[in-house]
Amino acid sequence: MKSREQEYREIFMAEALEYYDAMSRHISELEKTPTDEPALNELFRLMHNLKSNARAMGYTQIGELAHHMETIFGLIRSKEKSFTGSVVPVLFGGIDTIGNMIRAIGDGQETDSVADVDELLANLDRLVRGEEPVLIDAGAAAEDDANRKLELSDLVYIQIKKLDHLLNLVGELIIDRDRILTLSQEIGNSALQATAAHLFRISDELQYSVMDARLVNVGSLFNKFPRVVRDVATAERKEVELTLVGEDIQIDRNILQIITDSLLHLVRNAIGHGLEQPQERVNLGKPAIGQLTMSAQTERDDVLIHVIDDGRGIDIANVRRKAVERGLISKEAATTLDDDAVRAFLFEPGFSMAQEVTEISGRGVGLDVVKLAIDSLGGQLRVDSTLGKGTTFTLVLPTSIAVKGALLFELDERSYAIPLMHTDSVVSLWPEQLHIVGGTLLADIQEESVPVVSLRRLLHNGDGPLKPVHRAEVTGRQDIIIVNYNNRKLGLIVDRFLRQQAIVIKSMSKPLDTIDLFGGVTLLGSGQVCLVLDVPALTRLFLAKRP
């Protein structure tokens, strides 16, 4: 597997060779028409970009040569020099040398292995001083140019819509692959099974190759935020230091596009409402400069993006009080909630619409919209905070949105799927391991009391509230899937567990797309259509209908 350094070197190589080709073209145009301003401006821009990229990669000699060349083109652009006489062969030689140095990097050689670099730099300095360059053999240089081989870059740039289309086709292929594999097992023909197994391996490799081609560095988005932070901090009259961590973590480009507005919102809120004014921070014993960190890391198959500030933190007591005032929970029930459950109210639709909610460290405004964006990806949004110390928002994201891990289960002789992103665990419990409080079934899971509901009752209950559960109704072993959404766990009783597998989720057609409880459909290897449950919608439904 390629290292990050190798990937960056290949990207630099591809761009640098493109710059070289473009510079060769423009300097030829300039030789024909020395007053060609568009060609001159492009040469200046390309040299400037190459200089910056080379220095960033540590290729200082290329950066130095590009800097000298940029200076000469700048003088020509400002009419202090003209593209005539001895200037022409020196600049042509400079571009050729840049091409040789780039190719040397591609061959794993040092750039100083290219001959005559020092002499070229000296000549460029002479041109800047208005002196004649040193005995250039134009004939020999022309002969070398005439014998030069043409090269193409090893990298190509592909429009994202083409990759989207390719990934959709791969998704269709995987569905058919699973059907063929199932049929081959049912028929029992050994030759067919061997072919199906080979198809499985090939399509699996194709799937991951396409997914890999869509990956981009998180830094491509992170690196846009220093300017955002500077502008917001200036508007708020605050001092903020931004730290970026994990820019080389890779994620699907479409996922990064979808979370852009969410990250922007979280960063603006952190500066505007999370971080205190400089004097207030000093009075609290904090440094006047607020600290804001954006970091990315991988955790199993997920990418975690954190937005961390060292500001006020979230006042749990205030959030609890507002939740009661808004009728989201009774006063008695609110006192039993832990801090995570209370903070979850910040993501409830409409919770932060009133002006006074901004007193809760400003963390309420628009968080429900952020949560919906993350939910649409099958991800999670978490918040952790300590009053007076700061707040951390964590976006838990899949690396790809095309193929998702899912848990398959059976209910009323039909197969259903739940995305693994929202699946906490599966347990099988006997009636004596369950207890009833206020008409709600509860299970003690890892020292936590988790409400449990029959998925059958939840799906077929109608518009009214769920009826209280009675002990006599709970008989036999209960297979329970523990799902987790918005820091709330819920146990769903199903008929039986089936298996875990990767699925391709397709949107439902009208009018089924209006049913909130299902996030889409997938096709199983048997050809059976399988509904994919929407865990956020199920959780909200249970909270609205619980006894």
How would you describe this protein?
There is one protein chain. With 547 residues, the protein is an alpha+beta fold. The protein folds into 4 domains: 4-146, Up-down Bundle (Four Helix Bundle (Hemerythrin (Met), subunit A)), CATH 1.20.120; 160-214, Helix Hairpins; 217-398, Heat Shock Protein 90 (2-Layer Sandwich), CATH 3.30.565.10; 403-545, OB fold (Dihydrolipoamide Acetyltransferase, E2P), CATH 2.40.50. The chain contains 18 helices and 18 strands. It has helices spanning 4-32, 37-57, 60-77, 87-106, 117-128, 138-146, 160-187, 190-213, 219-222, 225-235, 253-274, 278-283, 316-325, 331-334, 339-343, 367-376, 455-460, 535-545; strands spanning 215-217, 240-245, 250-252, 290-299, 302-309, 380-386, 390-398, 403-411, 414-419, 423-429, 434-437, 440-445, 448-454, 478-485, 488-494, 496-504, 518-523, 529-533. The protein has a 6-stranded mixed sheet with strand order 10-14-15-13-12-11. A 5-stranded mixed sheet has the order 2-4-5-7-6. A 5-stranded mixed sheet has the order 16-8-9-18-17. Strand 14 and strand 15 (488-494) form a beta hairpin. Helix 1 runs antiparallel to helix 4, helix 3 (60-77) runs parallel beside helix 5 and helix 11 (253-274) runs antiparallel to helix 16 (367-376). It is flat and about 105 Å long. The chain starts with a helix and ends with a helix. Residues 353-365 have low confidence and may be disordered.
